[in-house]
Design a protein that fits this description.
The protein is mainly beta. About 5% of the residues lie in helices and about 45% in strands.
Length: about 375
């Protein structure tokens, strides 16, 4: 539009020159204009966006620049997309590491294309990331899967997909809850097609010591819970990735982590603690493991475990002031998950939270014979 210049005379006879300058409307003005036009033609306001499909939905972390096609209802209204917590913006709104004009509307207005440089986003060692589309009316989210990982040297490690292999299935995770203030913890995953090449992540943190059970019906892994339990979080997601596909399962927290790093139960009472376990070493070839736990706030224990195996009964000992409990574990029933493991967490749960400490494991015979050694 050309400027419109007019000569006017004010009351004193001075010539007044005015100029009309075209100004590009902002996002707010365009949103308001859209609503006005909709009301004029008798159409209600546009609804919140709904993502129907993302293509590709699975990419390698080493793919570099990727164009994500996002289809759905009212998605075309977006000028802001988040991937893995980082913003991908539209024309004229680029941030450091992002391309100007990174979001483009598809010609049929059924969605948008978001161009993302994966190498500039903090996605290392994450199996999935949330992709969120924002419009003036609301937002919607879906997940993008990342195959493989990038090591500390920046090299790519990819788990290839094979269509001839079945996807993994998770039926149960033991324990299903841990303290949000816990440290390194050991978990057992029960299911099927849980192969030895599996990569396991808990809320994006890669698990260590991943081992397949001899039966092929489970995995054992360890992860530092303190790295995944953000302040106020109620749980985390366990992801298992194999050549056949992916599976996920929810892991709960038995208490709440405060900003100062301490944990409280739902009632606000300090969680239980363990200071000593007697004995602190067990022979996994034994039949029974009998543990005496010393600590604090162990009053009215609800459950006790060694690794993923629960005790049939947990007993509070005299003087019953929350400092002593005892329980037994049937090692014959849990031996498969304990063989080859150097340590396992002994856990005591009360209504106010979960406490645990590691005990050492040894095997007197390889393999353990039926009946095992004496405890």
């Amino acid at each position: 539009m050309e400027p419109n210049i007019m000569d006017l005379k004010d009351g004193a006879g001075y010539a007044v020159r005015t100029m009309t300058v075209p100004m590009k409307p902002g996002r707010g003005e365009m949103a308001a204009l859209t609503r006005v036009l909709l009301r004029v033609v008798g159409v209600p306001d546009l609804g919140i966006p709904r993502i129907d499909k993302i293509e590709p939905s699975s990419v390698s972390l080493c793919d570099g620049q990727v164009d994500f096609q996002i289809w759905g209802e009212n998605v075309w209204r977006t000028s802001l997309v988040h991937l893995g917590g980082r913003a991908v913006r539209g024309p004229g709104e680029a941030e450091e590491g992002l391309t100007d004009g990174a979001i483009r509307v598809l010609p049929d207005m059924r969605g948008v294309v978001a161009s993302v440089d994966l190498s500039r986003l903090p996605l290392r060692q994450r199996p999935v990331a949330e992709l969120t589309v924002w419009t003036p009316e609301g937002r919607d989210s879906a997940f993008v899967e990342f195959i493989g990982e990038v090591d500390d040297a920046g090299s790519c490690v990819t788990v290839g997909r094979r269509k001839d292999l079945p996807s993994p299935l998770i039926r149960e995770i033991r324990p299903s809850q841990v303290s949000a203030c816990g440290g390194m913890s050991t978990f057992n995953v029960l299911g099927s097609h849980l192969t030895s090449d599996a990569l396991v992540y808990v809320d994006g943190v890669r698990a260590s010591d991943v081992r397949q059970w001899p039966s092929g019906q489970g995995l054992t892994f360890a992860v530092d819970v303190s790295k995944i339990s953000e302040s106020g979080a109620q749980g985390a997601v366990v992801n298992v990735s194999t050549q056949g596909g992916d599976a996920s399962y929810d892991l709960g927290f038995s208490d709440y982590r405060l900003r100062d790093g301490s944990c409280v139960g739902e009632s606000g009472v300090l969680r239980p603690t363990i200071t000593r376990i007697v004995p602190d070493t067990f022979n996994v070839c034994s039949s029974i493991a009998s543990l005496t736990v010393e600590g604090g706030n162990l009053n009215a224990p609800i459950e006790a475990r060694l690794g993923a195996m629960a005790a049939a009964e947990v007993e509070e000992l005299e003087p019953k002031d929350g400092t002593l409990v005892r329980f037994e574990i049937d090692l014959e029933a849990s031996r498969e998950s304990l063989l080859g493991v150097a340590t396992a967490p002994a856990q005591v749960r009360t209504q106010h939270g979960l406490a645990f400490a590691d005990v050492s494991l040894v095997a007197s015979e390889t393999p353990c014979k039926t009946g095992g050694a004496k405890r």
